[in-house]
TrEMBL record:
Signal sequence annotation: 1-23
InterPro entries: AL/BT2_dom
Gene3D superfamilies noted in UniProt: Exo-inulinase, domain 1
Protein name: 3-keto-alpha-glucoside-1,2-lyase/3-keto-2-hydroxy-glucal hydratase domain-containing protein
Annotated keywords: Signal
Lineage: Bacteria, Pseudomonadati, Planctomycetota, Planctomycetia, Gemmatales
Every 3-keto-alpha-glucoside-1,2-lyase/3-keto-2-hydroxy-glucal hydratase domain range: 29-187
Pfam family, one: 3keto-disac_hyd
Organism: Urbifossiella limnaea
Alphabetized GO MF terms: hydrolase activity
Length: 192
């Protein structure tokens, strides 16, 4: 009689300690750019060549991995950028949640130009943010209208008018330290 109870208790405990990461549930026109399982839709670019990671949980060099609903930028040597296969040429809103290790340095590329995504208070350049949560989840929102983007972190302005080309993919950068991303989603502007 004790054994079935012990097995059920162990199973319940195992489920309780597995971290549950809420996945974005695209609705109301939102499209998820990360499926929470693998790197489908993402890859490395080298000139005109694109190394696709469709169906893979890790990039060929291990700098990027997907596990438990999180896309992780792993520490390594040198800069490396991960890009969406798809380019985006209309107005849109992009939302990305991130968690930076101490002094981590990454980036979010919007049609090419980079927005710094870092452990801001330590690594800068936006050291005066008051709503940034160190080593916790934060949200960057990028609203693209025409040739510029308005970029915020937890509602505080990072860039009021980041200049953009007419079209291009979304990218993430591996530079220094570990960075976690989740709920990467985009919504075309109404009527676009």
């Amino acid at each position: 009689m004790i054994r079935p109870f012990a097995a059920a208790a162990a199973a319940a405990l195992a489920v309780a300690v597995v971290p549950q990461v809420p996945a974005a549930q695209p609705a109301d026109g939102w499209v998820s750019l990360f499926n929470c399982k693998d790197l489908t839709g993402w890859g490395y670019k080298a000139g005109d060549k694109f190394e696709s990671f469709d169906g893979k949980t890790a990039a060929s060099d291990g700098r990027y991995t997907a596990k438990d609903g999180v896309l992780t930028v792993n520490p390594g040597k040198g800069l490396k950028q991960l890009w969406t296969k798809q380019a985006f040429g209309t107005d849109f809103e992009l939302r990305v949640e991130f968690r930076a290790a101490v002094n981590a340095d990454s980036g979010l590329f919007v049609r090419g130009p980079q927005l710094q995504v870092r452990d801001y208070p330590v690594a800068g350049p936006y050291k005066s943010l008051t709503k940034y949560k160190a080593q916790d989840w934060n949200e960057v929102v990028v609203v693209v209208k025409g040739p510029s983007a308005h970029c915020t972190c937890n509602g505080e302005v990072l860039e009021a008018a980041l200049k953009l080309p007419p079209t291009g993919p979304i990218g993430l950068e591996a530079d220094r330290g570990q960075m976690d991303y989740r709920n990467i989603r985009i919504k075309p502007a109404a009527g676009k």
